[in-house]
Fold these 2 entries.
Entry 1:
Amino acid sequence: MLTSLKQKVVSLLKDQVPLDRKTILSSLELPKVLEHGHLAMPMFPLAKIFKKSPQLIAQEMATQLRLPPEIEKVEAVAGYLNFHFQTFFIQKELLENITKPLPPPAQRKKIAIDFSSPNVAKPMHIGHLRATVIGQAIYNLAKAQGHEVIGINHLGDWGVQFGKLAWAYLQWKDDYDFENEPFESLYALYVRFHKEAEKHPEMNEAGSAMFKKLEEGDPEVQKIWKEFIYISMQEYEKLWKQLGVHHDLVRGESFYNDRLETVEKILEEKGLLVESEGALVVPLDEFNLPPCLIRKKDGASLYATRDIASAIYRMEELKCDLNLYVVGADQTLHFQQVFKVLEKMGYPWAKNCHHISFGMYRFKDVGKLSSRKGQIIRLDEVLEKAVQQIKTLIDEKNPSLPQKDKVAQQVGVGAIIFNDLVNDRVKDVEFNWNKALSFDGDSGPYVQYCLVRCRSILEKYQKPLPTAFSQELSSPEEKALLRHLLNYEETLQKAFENFKPHLVANYLLDTCKLFNHFYHKHKVLGASEEKDRLLLVFCTQKTLEKGLKILNMEAPQAM
């Protein structure tokens, strides 16, 4: 919506400044305060060209420009040219575009996003939440921008741990209720093996021997391994469904087994492989990075080898333009090495592979998490606790609410998602239950409640909404909300360009604050401006709905 305003300013300035349209467009900024208008153009780049101060250039241009009807005035402020659009024009633009999809991108891209990607036989824990919800939000952002997106589940389904698990299964499976609790039994086996192996190290050798059978295609071990994957995927799918998460492709680590030899062959042909203490590595001294380990001394491949193969598959076979890995910041060095190896291999698209890193969750009174020792905060338990707490709140505040269980799911799960996404992904997050579930603070329930309030106002009107504004909204609160709603499209573009969904979450919080400020100061139903204010409520509702959809949160009908 702001794009159309920018285009009008570009048309106004194109014959006045010696800059091309693209440069003018990229120079336009959003003033920080409403009093400075809707758009601002800095005059500093023109100082050398005109050999005048930016302040003088702005003053001269402000008096010389012939303004179209939709621009109310242009002011010179501290070296900027500030453009104030007519409020009624803003209202018209907003209403005409509020239900339309975003304009198509200048260049539509095909994007692979690797996210969530748990390890088979291990429960998804709170650490997986960030990879899951950040990845899905970036997926949604890319879709909303008009790009083709492939969500990939790079399932951790290969490695010596599966030989150990297969050995444990054959030894102890009868001790567990695999028929009724398959996943819990599988994880119990995993924990038990590692606990027992601390006392009996020879078990690790037995596990390695079992993994060798798996690698060689032993039918019995292959059957057990596939059962592990099936049991795990059934469990993960429940959680993904609860979070509204979708993957387009499951391409686990095992998918690349028959591609690893090709990777090594290319590296060898290009003279990049070096033997180091019996292992094969690619030196990366020129990038001030440690060597990238391609094959261990015992012949086993590593994560790096598989990630090189996965990048080649995504970019060469799937024909993607961007390859994104939504993985924690602790893997930064790993991806730096992988991308530099791809660069040395001569792939020009290596620069289009990006590690979308994120910080970790921090909890008070919780030690180091360990899947092997069974010391984890399970994601299913976190979601269930959130839902139960919301149910308790509903019973206290609105016991007659229809579909209480459904609303509790929407609000409880939404609270956990929003509590993650409202933070800049690069920062660590301290998990706080009271903050996450608050209806008053910067939380998901606060945004959902604001949307419910908008819907309630519109439902109480009980007539068809008008199709156009009849008069100009004049109060500062109305103008501030209008100006903010115009910026939704720009916010999504910036969030996608930087892969930072927190920009959307914070935009929604600001939307709610501005709306509540307007609503508390001005009557809507029954006011002389009723129809026009109802349209402002409608535009707010639609913006909140679209924004929550980007964050993968459901919008309750009532709360």
Entry 2:
Amino acid sequence: MAKKSEGAMKNVAVSRYGWLVFLLSMIFIAVIVCIFKIKYAEGSAWRELGRQETVKKDREIRPNRGNIYADDDRLLATSEPLYGVYIDFMSEGIAKDTLMKYVTPLSQSLAKKFPDRNAAQYKKVIMDGWQLSRKELAEIERNRKNGSNKKVKVRSRYVRIIRPDINYIDLKEIKTYPFLNQRSNRSGLFTEEKTMRMKPFGRLAGRTVGSIFKDFEAGGASGLELKYDSILKGIPGVKTRQRVQGRWIDVVLEEPVDGLDIKTTLNVDVQDLAERALYSKLAETKAESGVAIVMEVETGEIKAITNLDRISEGVYAEGNPNAFSYMSEPGSTFKTVSLMVALEDGVITPNDSVYVGNGLFEYKGRTVRDHYWRTGGRKDYMTIAEGMHISSNVVISKMILKGYENDPQKYVKHIHDLGITKKIEWDVPLKGKEGTSVIRFPDDKFNIWSKTTLPWMSFGYETQIPPIYMLMFYNGIANNGKMIKPFLTKAFMKDGKIKEEFETEVINPSLCSDKTLSEIQEILRGVVTNGTGKAVSSDLFPIAGKTGTAMIAARGGYEGYYVSFCGYFPADKPKYTCFVGIRRPVGSPSGGLMPGAVFKNIAEGIFNRNLVSTPVKASKDTVNSLIPAVKSGSLKNTELVLKKLDQSYSLLEKVDWIKAKQDSLDNKILLENNVTIKQGFVPSVIGMGARDAIYLLENAGLKVNLSGAGKVKRQSITAGSKVIKGSTISIELN
């Protein structure tokens, strides 16, 4: 019995063991099946879910946009990261006790650094944000307890505590302030990075350098920024966000390629001269708009190009690309083109006489008039050279009729052969006909050639030539007959090294014979010494050029005048060519007195800056009795000049900005710290030059309206007033 019982128990144990083995085998088989199912049948879905949990989708890495430089490597445009500063009052790590303890010293620190708010206002912003977060959290909790799915609009998540966007240096500083010096989960500090395009010289050459859209990624909006947007913006990189050991890290898949830098031909000093000279004359004549271009004769490099349009009474700013978009009749500056054609074809010589009578010439129902005809000053006969000197329409029209009345096609073809109608690709983006010359042929089917087109075309009507082409033609005369393309872009660079350099492009290697060229050069000098350009004449060096005055076609008639002067200097050894044009000035229009005055100011300014004369040793008494007048402004620049002049000076305190006084007793200049520069407040710029004054005021966030020249004698907003960003301050120089 005992043996049977023992055997039965053994059978039961074996049976149970068998079932256990079977169960484990089934479980093993089920696991294997699940593994295969997960790995192969559902593998792709699970892998994607894993990636979603541990890897965020590819994101773009923005490349650095290239800089734009002047010819001496000074920055005209660059990119700077700026940060919007917020506090997330919903951050779980914020401790109420800590916030209450440090809110007052934090507010005081912020008010000292960013004085557009006082400490009490900063404290209110912070406390309002904290209290709002408590209300929103309480509302969220009530909805949860009530089982409500109603969403709460959370406004305390990101509360902006500093109004302006700040740079990285300021951001590092505020992270040292009380409360904000904690880890971000405890302070709630959150920053939003933006990339802004900065212009160290403010509005200087603003239209030419151009701008970008507010949305930085949209790229260039105008000027060089738009023309070379694809060069400047670079190639974006790619990165992912991957979760590793509970932390998210960036994994770069493809490095971004930064944009290339652009080196321009623009010279900051010459550009500044041109803008100030043109602005002053536009304000004086209450003109609609104006343009000034300065070009280096031998290279074709544009050293200055300013386009000013009136935006309000007495206020002008860079607007349209006037150098290219003035698609109007050029007037008398075109007479030089007609003269070159006639001389080269042997139609006349400079000494040939033309009958002008009282300055009126009837031709097929239309009257050609000279500017002196109303005064009754009878001239009778005049040579071709004299006619150019006084800008006689009668002389030029009779000259062209003499040679081409029966074959106007020859005259127009010769003009085209000069190259002033050649289609040229410019460095700035243009629309439609902008930047092209329009001179029609007699057989033009779309613009009918009338019986009087030839004589009127001869002195600058019934054609369209923008300033840039007229500049190019006169530069060809200055450049011994070789006409070259004016250009703005000198090179593309990477890390300071030139990647692609642009060379001078020759449009016409020889405009005319040496004999014709010499005759024209002599006549253009006579315009300045004996003719309509007398106001342009300088005591420092000879100038050659031609005045222009043309009525502006509008609504089937003519409204207002377009006056211009185009020439080069020094006339005996040309270094620069300059064009100045002014549209619709108030008063009696004059190419010599209006744009000619601007030309002279620019030319003499360049001459004084660039040409160095040998100093004459003065007597001791003369030296002791003369102390140079020194403007207030930058200490660094002032010291540099005074040391070069070997002028004694005393410095009371080492500061960035000084006020200068004369001490005639000790024959010294006293440099004092009398210029208070405080962020958020209007600085005093009285006694400063235009450049320093504009720099300080624009850095303070103001727009500057400037008039006059010399030192600042008056500013419209009192020094020490709080700055209202974007407001306009007027400064008057004397």
